[in-house]
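URGENT: need a sanity check before tomorrow's submission.

F., can you look over the LCP family protein required for cell wall assembly record below? I want to be sure the sequence and structure line up before it goes out.
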Amino acid sequence: MNETARRPRRPSSGPVRHGRLRSSSPVATALKGLAVVAAVALVSVGTITAYAVSSVATQFTSNAVDISNGEAAPAPPPLLSAFEGGFNMLVIGTDNDPNQGDSFGERDATLNDVNILLHVSADHKNAVVVSFPRDLVISHPDCQDPETGETFDAMSAQPLNDAYARGGIACVANTVSNLTGLSIQYAAATSFDGVIEMTNAVGGVPVCLTAPIFDSDSGLDLPAGTSVIEGQMALAFLRNRHGVGDGSDLSRIGSQQQYLSSLMRTMKSADTLSDLGKLYGLAQAAASNIKPSQSLASPDAMVSLALTLKDVDLNNIVFVQYPSEEDPDDVNKVVPAQYLADAMFAKIVADQPFTLGADSTTTGSTVVEDPAAPAEPAPDATAAPDATAAPTTDPSAPEVIEGLKGQTAAQQTCANPNDN
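Structure tokens as predicted:
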């Protein structure tokens, strides 16, 4: 691979290193899924009182970062109503928050180990949540850190999680925009402590295991069946790698998608939306643990985001992994599966919904039936088929993109232990 090309004033000429943690350590990828937890927390802000919004907005504004990269800022959101049209929001999970101490290991740089892009359609009927692998090897554009003014040259082939060290939130947004062809209007970054505070605020999230999992690296220790997790155990569930699926970082995304879809169902439930204490706690946790873009750091923007997302049907919210395949030059890295990525982002750019094929979940998860759903009546085996019946295929149904991995927010899944 080509090394990072930096301007002469940059003291180091090599690529960003990962510090003393082993590449197989779960700590370096602990935050997959924490990003959308942050996004959902932001959504909750719009449902609480004006006083609560104002109090948390003060904290937000003080940490805001310019991600415009020379482009015009998005139009101000409408007062107390949903955004007009669609939008793209990037949520970043960093692995080296100065406030978290050394309890999660040491780094010589802050890496963007979580990169999740939320796209909401212009008609507000569909949403796509794309998780990008941290070790996805791609080209990086020129970046300038808006907080320091430092400038970095483009790189031809480096992992995505090197972007934050080259210019913070703005550079990660620019890099993802360069990869996907999407303009990113809003962004936010968060870290380890946020997941603990936000899951505590919502009162815990139900997750399911097909068999018990104990993983000493992450601290995960849960029985088979459904458990409501919060705090350190929620973080352990998101961090756990070696105990689920085939032990890979990509496999772990399956259990993280389970957590996030369950969180969204929890957030949409009457018990959460009617509980002012939970909602205010979520808002405070978000404000204390999230660094937003300037475009996001206002009460109006947060309220508009909430109103835009609140009515999207769970069946129409698709969680999907960015399609990738093994890097031929490094078995520990992945590269874009370009044909699938092109198919998916053609739909997103055109604002057209799509859905996933059968058996689309990762090796780390299994779809389960909703125990609360009414049973389907058994077919009458003695009835003759109706030759005049119309075809059952709905021509207006979203196109299926075979090969993508993920699930909808409505699907309930269970994590599979690693049997290796």
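My own read: Residues 26-199+253-353 form a domain with the Aminopeptidase fold (CATH 3.40.630.190). The CA atoms of residues 112 and 360 lie 26 Å apart. If you see anything odd, call me.
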